[in-house]
Amino acid sequence: MAKTRHNHLLDTIDDIITSAANKGIVHLHSQGDSLSGSTLRINDRELKHFGTCGYLGLEQDSRLKAGVIDAVTKYGTQFPMSKTYVSSPLYAELENLIEAMYGYPVILTKNSTLGHITVIPSIIRDDDVVILDQQVHASIQSAVQMLKPKGVRVEIIRHSNLEMLEERIQELRSKYNRIWYMADGVYSMYGDVAPIKEMQKLADKYDQLYLYVDDAHGMSWAGEHGTGFIMSQVKMHRKMVLCATMGKCFGATGGLIVFPEEEMRRKVKIFGGPLTFSVQIEPPMLGAAIASAKIHLSDEIYAMQQRLAGKIEFCNELIRQTDLPLVVENECPIFFIGTGMPATGYNFVERLMKEGYYVNLGVFPAVPVKNTGVRFTISCHNSEADIEGFVEAMDYHYPKALEDEGKTENEVRKSFKMPLLSEKATLEAKVTSELTAQVSSTIEAFPEEEWNRLISKNMSVDWKGMKFIEEAFSGNDLPEENWKFHYLMVRDGEGTPVLATFFSSALCKDDIFAQAGVSIQLEEDRKYNPYLLTSQTLVMGSLMTEGNHFYLNKGHSQWEEAVRIMIGKVGEIQESEKISATYLRDFDDNDPQLKEVFHDQGFVKVDVPDSCVIDKLGWKNTDEFLSGLSTRSRRHIRYDVLKYEHMFDVEVVNAPSKEDMRHFQDLFRNVRNRNFAINVFDYPDKFFQMMPGEAGWEFVVLKLKPEFDSNQKPVAVAFNYRNDAGVYTFLLIGMDYEYLEKYNIYRQTIYRTLQQANTLGYQTLRLGISATIEKKKFGASVHPKVAFVQIKDNFNMEQIEQLAVSQA
């Protein structure tokens, strides 16, 4: 199996968050000798605080502070024992108060994350299945991963899509004991809420369905006794586990889990690992929590809730009077103003901070990268005057942030599927550039010599090769066999090219760069559903070509503007072709300026397969070729290649017969059906039928001599391309796997291609991607490559990520 570097999600997150940190948006430190809750001092500036999760302001309540002081005075800073043996003296009082609030059995944990790790592995059995809401909190998703080594099946459904949930229930209920649907009560980014009433109706309808709901952001500001948003909408269900936190609006710290019956709680207390192995909530925080619970059990909590509700409605009314794109309007204290691209989000946050307001940036992975926005919260700390000034500041700076980044309000609204503004109300992006962009659907629109000079010398095929591919991938029967091409040249006022590239749009498998094991599993499912997890995809270059498909004159003063023009054209293609995923590939990971531009425009970096190139051709004989290799590689070549050289008859063919071409195609499909390092659809018959006699294509054909094999059909063929820009490319390979190991036909094919390129006088041989270890033995230099990816909808990728985790 070919070796492929697979991107780790942590690397992608690192790039995004580091970029935000460098812009002074995240990883900040508050300053000052005290905190009031209404302001934060950051970088020596006093900012009005619109980012807290302490919606009721209880963290500043004098009674909670007094509870801390009294508890620490009496019981110390901590109670360093396992709760399995002995609990702190304050635990029993707090548990009794929380149970009085909910009226059901409760377990308290150090925090809500440990609460999920405690409960989920304890209540879910090997014959259960878990269905995650697409946007359920990361702490639940992390806890669920602990189930996978036990073989528990985990699936994802689209966010709050109960029709999809019911379809999965109907499919799974005959195969599993319990089906657990896990969701949030209030979602932490957009502030939208779970359709809990409908969820409970499904639980009544299907015996197997159980609900696990995290109401961390619904706690305190809603519900009887502040028991949360969920409990404000429904009663506790006999098949629901409800989680919340005391670490946000409640004003203290710690997680709490409410069970529908005592037996379930008893088992969790016995089997819940963190209850045994993690430290307890510290006495000071137990003191604060007890004080808060007493407030929750009094009528005062309702006055606090009403006070906050008035501020939330006041903010909603002010926003209604603007064109600000509020993604979700409801009665929750969480608000999200969409900015679309990260660059606009960065700009907007920076402007608001300079104006004196602190807000949160909602960016990948918390939201899809094109759904970046400003997340802010309303709390009892915010006065109406502060809220009014804040909305005025947003209304003023939002269009200016868009203008700075060359975006329009309707572009943002489209990315969030929101109603569009009328043309008069829409801010149009300023166009001040002297650059011009030429766009075409065919390579024929561009001079052959210029295109080859700028692009073809660094990629596998030239101008003529692209014309061939255009024709081969059009007019075919299957949707995946028809590609559309989009060529772009950006020139300055004097007509000099600043940027040149091309893209292809096609139906692709979403696991194209996934781990091989994931693709193997999906291909089994695709035997019954061939278009499972496939999407319209836009790829820089094409799925046929390899190399650098991107020319950019970094010495030009307007190169960044040229890149932005390209990204603007990409946006137009995305809309017209209904593109779900866009890949800008294959770049060297050594250009921080270009990476920042792509990140700001909503593209995240991922690793893609390495590129292998031999650029030291021109040797006169085998000994001279070997002398250029390392000692270890020379040994490999002699033992694995030259030892078998005499067994083969090799022919270079330009125009094979139809019968031979059909055999070559069968050999190619042998390879394609086994290589999942890059998982793509098969190429159309037309592609192979057009090759014979086509300028640029030639075939290095290997047969075993009669004394080694009586079957005189080719056992391997290299589909090679002679590029007019001076590059010879080993583009595709076909093999008969019956002969692979006995005669080392893969290595032999590479060697014979290398010989042919050298004989023809080429200086550069491109060996394609993957199988880097084998290709290095022949002297290839390996070039790690990255792509910059923009996904319109993360759902398919999250499904693939779940498959990858389950195989880890």
UniProtKB/TrEMBL annotation:
Matching Pfam families: Acetyltransf_6, Aminotran_1_2
The GO molecular function terms of this record are: acyltransferase activity; transaminase activity
Q: Which residues form the Aminotransferase class I/classII large domain?
A: 77-393
Q: Which SUPFAM superfamilies match?
A: Acyl-CoA N-acyltransferases (Nat) (SSF55729), PLP-dependent transferases (SSF53383)
- The BioF2-like acetyltransferase domain covers 632-773
Enzyme Commission numbers on file: 2.3.1.-
Q: Which cofactor does it need?
A: pyridoxal 5'-phosphate
| Highest taxon, organism lineage | Bacteria
The record's listing under Gene3D superfamilies reads:
3.40.630.30, Aspartate Aminotransferase, domain 1 (3.90.1150.10), Type I PLP-dependent aspartate aminotransferase-like (Major domain) (3.40.640.10)
Name assigned to this protein: Bifunctional aminotransferase class I/II-fold pyridoxal phosphate-dependent enzyme/GNAT family N-acetyltransferase
Any idea which UniProt keywords this protein has? Acyltransferase, Aminotransferase, Transferase
